[in-house]
């Protein structure tokens, strides 16, 4: 996703919106934008800092030093602009949500394609082994290391599919403001349970 996701002037307004939530330094603003877009849009320092300087010149933002960091805070004038333009902020937010949802669909499609390709490659390898004759086929089937490598590929592909799909779902929930601590706690407990079950299966 390119920086063009923001129409002219929208990034300026969105920075004010982020600062209205809490004071931040420049990197935190960059990280907040990256997180909001699920990592698909990461503005450069050369994009963010000139806009912050302009906002400061306009009296909408003020800055202070905190050790080696410069913290930016919204002023009363800046907060008034955000409130006056609240409908525009909501339009921008909706655009971000649509972008994240498109990303989730693309991730699922990409993972599905990768899984199908892997299954096809494994099936082709198995057919090739069978076609080479009973000796080669038997050695392939009876070779624990070869079978383990194939199972490892399948396991890693399944883990990648799970991670990418769940990550996309979590990003959507976060964008909707509905990602709760209970969900994260459930995720951790279920992952621990699955890990223990898999470990016990490998020991048996």
How do the strands and helices of this protein lay out in sequence?
Layout: H1 10-21, E1 24-25, H2 26-36, H3 45-57, E2 61-66, E3 69-74, H4 76-84, H5 86-131, H6 134-142, H7 144-175, H8 181-203
Helix pairs in contact: 5-6, 5-7
Please indicate the percent range of residues in DSSP E strands (runs of 2 or more): 5-15%
Helical percentage? over 70%
Mean pLDDT: 79
- Largest sheet report: 3 strands, antiparallel
The helix tally amounts to: 8
Q: Tally of extended strands? A: 3
Strand order of the largest sheet: 1-3-2
The structure class reads mainly alpha
Molecular structure report:
- It comes from Naasia lichenicola.
- It holds the Pfam family PadR.
- This is Helix-turn-helix transcriptional regulator.
- The protein is mainly alpha-helical and 204 residues long.
- It folds into two domains: 82 residues, Winged helix-like DNA-binding domain superfamily/Winged helix DNA-binding domain (Arc Repressor Mutant, subunit A, Orthogonal Bundle); 117 residues, no CATH class.
- Helix content is 76%, strand content 7%.
- Strands 1-3-2 form a three-stranded antiparallel β-sheet.
- Helix 5 crosses helix 6 and helix 5 runs antiparallel to helix 7.
- The protein starts with 9 loop residues before the first helix and ends with a helix.
């Amino acid at each position: 996703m390119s920086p063009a996701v923001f129409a002219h002037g929208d990034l300026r307004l969105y920075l004010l919106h982020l600062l209205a939530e809490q004071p931040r330094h420049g990197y935190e603003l960059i990280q907040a934008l990256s997180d909001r877009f699920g990592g698909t849009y990461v503005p450069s320092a050369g994009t963010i800092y000139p806009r912050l300087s302009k906002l400061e010149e306009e009296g909408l933002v003020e800055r202070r030093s905190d050790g080696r960091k410069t913290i930016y805070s919204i002023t009363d004038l800046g907060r008034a602009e955000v409130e006056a333009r609240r409908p525009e902020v909501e339009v921008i937010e909706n655009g971000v949500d649509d972008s994240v949802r498109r990303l989730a669909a693309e991730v699922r499609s990409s993972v599905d394609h990768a899984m199908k390709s892997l299954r096809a490659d494994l099936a082709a390898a198995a057919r090739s082994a069978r076609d080479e004759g009973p000796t080669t086929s038997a050695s392939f089937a009876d070779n624990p290391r070869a079978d383990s490598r194939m199972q490892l590929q399948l396991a890693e592909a399944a883990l990648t599919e799970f991670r990418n799909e769940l990550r996309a779902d979590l990003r959507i929930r976060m964008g909707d403001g509905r990602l709760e601590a209970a969900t994260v706690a459930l995720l951790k407990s279920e992952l621990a349970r699955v890990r223990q079950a898999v470990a016990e299966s490998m020991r048996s």
